[in-house]
Every structure is written in structure tokens, then in C-alpha cells.
Amino acid sequence: MVADAGTWTLGDLPVNRVGFGAMRLPQRGPAFAPQAAPGDRDQAIKVLRRAVELGVNHIDTAAFYFSSLRSANELINTALSPYPDDLVIATKVGPRRDTSGGWLSPATPEQLRGDVQENLRQLGRDHLDLVNLRLSRQDSITDHFGALADLRDAGLIRHLGLSNVHATHLAQAQEIAPVACVQNAYGLGHRPEEDQFVRACGEQGVAFVPFFAIAGAGREAGVGDGEHEDVLAIARTHQATPAQIRLAWALHRGPHVLVIPGTGDLGHLADNIAAGALRLPQEDLARLDAAHSG
User: Would the keyword Cytoplasm turn up in this protein's UniProt record (predicted)?
Assistant: First the structure.
């Protein structure tokens, strides 16, 4: 069923275009919320295993995804190790949190090696398939991306990507090493100013991986107070959920767009994966595009 959405190659690693984001697994409620209650460990493990059973072979995670009791990386390691040969685990570095969950200053270029090694340790890997450098308002990423390129040359990382970036950052990075993907906030009605960058990534053979593709401006808290009437109407027409319509719309933005919806619920997992099989007619896409542009 996952394969219905097609595949894309991250570097030299083929993945199904519907993946899974692990950010929500360590805790209940919004990610990174102060004093967030730990999530159900057994349920998280079931969700991860079921995702792989349904064909997901692209999982997004980070060492800074954790609650007071558990981390996303530890859950992935427990649920899926020894890892299937075709499973691609993407992680990210840059942001840092202390043991209580508070945010620290972003990593310096010199600190990135320790962050990569921590991801390796938690995941039980000898190399990382894909590491995204997530930016925190830097103008130049040359030193940071250069440090990751050195770790790639040392065999600790296979492919490199970027997160929370602009076109200028992508150009800077490509002067140093190949970029497999860009991971930015984007969704139907959320950040339409990203449309040109999404297209540009496709023209350059770079995957675009939107996070919050379902929630949009609601971000970690969910979709928000209401859903757009056109999304609701099209969902009714296709006997689908609004979340499925949002995922299907994102996938229609180009064959290089990969979605990574996250959930701790088995039913929502099945719904998200089923969205990859939705084929929206042109009139529906035009209606959604108009809603997106506002």
C-alpha cells in the first residue's frame, strides 16, 4: 500500500514516498512541551513495527526527540533492530537539549561530531544513512555543513541533507557536498511562499520532505481550531479524512516530495499510509491549490 505513492532515491537509497516521523513517539501531546508526559512505550514499538510491516522504509528521527523516560532513537532501536536492509533512517543535528529537555545553544561545527556519534550510539548503527543539518537562523552554513561533510568522508554518514533552510543555504551546501534532501515546514495553506523552492528542489534532483504536512500552521499542536471548507468537501467526496487529503495534496506537488507523518496511533498510521493511494482529479487539485494560495 505504501508503494502506491511511488518511490524516490535519497542519494543511492530508494525509499517509498510515504515515510514516518518519530517526533511524537516519546511523549503524549505536543512535542517538546514543558513537562510533557512520556508516551506509551509498548504502543510506540507496535506503531513502528506496524509501519515497517505496511511498507514504510524511511523513518525520520533525532537524538533531541526525547521525553523524561525515553527517546525516539531508543524506541526505533528496540522496535526494529536488527534493521531491515532497505530501511533508511534519517536523523538531524544542530538543535540541542539538556537532560531536563530545555533547549541549549545550537551545536557549533566542532560539536556536530559528538551529536552524530550520539545518534549512532542510540540507534545502534555504525553509520547513519542520512543526516540533516537543521539550521537555527544562521546566514552561512559553510562551517557546519563542512564539518558534516568531513564525517561523511570518514564513513560515519552516507548522505547529507538540510532542514529549516532557504535556497541560499542549499546553494552554499552544494558547493561543499551533494545534498540529498531539504526538510522544511510546508503544507496545504502553510507557507505558500515555499512553492518556488519546492519546485527548485525537484529541478535539482533534491528531495523535498515537508514536516507538518498535516498540521500546517498548527505545527506540533495539531491542525488547529478548524479545517478549510474545501478540504472537508473533497474529503467527503473521496470518503477520506482531511489529513489524508492534505497528505495526498503534498504528494501531488512533485515526485520528489516525500511525506513523513508521525503518530502514536495505529489507526492514524493506517490512514496516513492509505493517503498515498489517493489520486485527486485535476479539479480537486486546482481547488486545493487555490485554498493553499489563499
Answer: no
